[in-house]
Specification:
By secondary structure, the chain is mainly beta. The protein has helices spanning about 15-25, 30-40, 50-70; strands spanning about 1-5, 85, 90-95, 115-125, 130, 130-135, 140-145, 155-175, 180-200, 205-215, 220-230, 235-245, 260-270, 275-280, 290-300, 305-315, 320-325, 335-340, 345-360, 365-370, 380, 385-390.
Length: about 400
């Protein structure tokens, strides 16, 4: 991991900024980089307590949303090849011609003694947070405005360039014809660059810049899935997922605590088309969250399945960024605008399109792209990912 800080203080705040920079240079985590960029605000509001509370709330919200994104995707649904014993033939055959959804679970399990190993890669460049651009320098941190006017005479903005690259090792093993287990081991790299700029009556001055990167093991995923009812390739299953706190919380690679998500899964497959859905609830993670997903699969050719999905989450306790306006305690006719965070629940929805292609033998190539449909949370315009799986027959 590397971390760099620099600071260019405003003439009226030299001592304060230099002291802030000196403390920051001694710290070495990604959380410190983000904290340095977000919490050290220079506009004189004469209300240090509110300044600090708002800045800390903003920093914590950005950190939580980043960790949530890293923990949510990529996450393969498993079950590309599914098998069952055909009594009339006395042999094992494919349970479905479809290779299944991308991220949504399906009721079919792998089959007893069947196993797979895969590697997935995803890259994300985050563009906005809660509908506010991260990269163009318009994210207001603090501002002073004359009451009745719309344009602040003193405004401090923050720009952040955040990128994550994740490689995940996936494995699935069928314990019985109705029960399988799987695991995902993610390796994550996060990079962050940013700057804080103060604009006073049209004159811009860089207050601080910071950059850092961290890489390592993310939070390991363990899953189990049990088929309760099976009619052909359709049915109902229950499952659960545990995320272990193996990623470094201070470097935003993990949540810092274990979480558990029970899930209920339903599938209907007829001829070449399938419909799949699931619902789950996460306990003790970064946020307690209701998750839901739906997928439509179509067998376009014997070796190719096309997939469209909708993935949703209702997040509790993370908060959303918002601007608050309060009267300046000493300057009559002046209001202070602060970026802070509310504690409201938020709904996030993502669309996914992709395919699963049986390249050769039991090698399966999966490629897909994600597109956020809401402004909630930390978002990229597009998130591509690719996965290679090999299934042992």
């Amino acid at each position: 991991m590397t971390v760099r800080f620099s600071c260019k203080p405003a003439p009226l705040a030299i001592a304060d900024v230099l002291l802030t920079a000196a403390r920051a240079e001694a710290q070495q985590s990604m959380s410190d980089v983000l904290s340095f960029l977000v919490t050290n605000r220079s506009i004189a509001t004469d209300d240090f307590v509110r300044d600090e509370q708002a800045a800390i709330a903003t920093r914590d919200t950005i950190s939580k949303l980043l960790v949530l994104e890293l923990s949510w995707l990529p996450s393969s649904s498993g079950g590309g090849f599914t098998y069952r014993l055909e009594p009339a033939l006395g042999t094992v055959i494919r349970s479905s011609d479809s290779f299944g959804p991308l991220f949504t679970q399906r009721a079919l399990v792998s089959g007893q003694g069947r196993a797979s190993f895969g590697v997935s890669y995803s890259t994300t460049t985050f563009e906005n947070i809660d509908g506010r651009s991260l990269r163009d320098g318009t994210l207001v941190s603090t501002a002073s405005v004359f009451r009745g006017e719309t344009v602040p005479f003193d405004i401090e903005t923050v720009s952040l360039r955040i990128r994550s690259d994740t490689m995940t090792l996936n494995g699935t093993v069928g314990i019985t014809d109705r029960f399988d287990v799987s695991a995902g081991i993610p390796f994550v790299r996060v990079t962050l660059q940013g700057e804080r700029i103060d604009t006073y009556r049209g004159r811009q001055l860089v207050q601080a810049t910071g950059s850092g990167s961290a890489s390592g093991l993310g939070d390991v995923i363990l899953r189990g899935r049990y088929n309760v009812l099976l009619v052909g390739a359709s049915g109902f299953a229950v499952g659960g997922e545990v995320r272990l706190p193996t990623g470094r919380e201070e470097d935003l690679l993990g949540a810092g605590r274990a979480s558990f998500t029970p899930r209920f899964v339903g599938s209907y497959e007829h001829d070449r088309v399938g419909v799949h859905g699931e619902v789950g609830y996460t306990f003790r993670g970064v946020s307690d969250a209701l998750s839901y997903a739906g997928a439509v699969t179509a067998v376009a050719a014997p070796r190719l399945t096309l997939v469209g999905e909708l993935l949703g989450r209702r997040l509790n306790g993370v908060g959303q960024l918002e601007e608050t306006t309060l009267a300046h305690p000493r300057l009559a006719g002046v209001d202070t605008i602060r970026l802070t965070s509310s504690g409201d629940a938020a709904d996030r929805l993502v669309a996914v399109a992709g395919f699963k292609w049986n390249v050769a033998s039991t090698w399966l190539l999966t490629a897909n792209v994600l597109r956020p449909l809401t402004d909630v949370g930390l978002n990229a315009e597009w998130v591509p990912s690719v996965t290679f799986d090999y299934w042992f027959r």
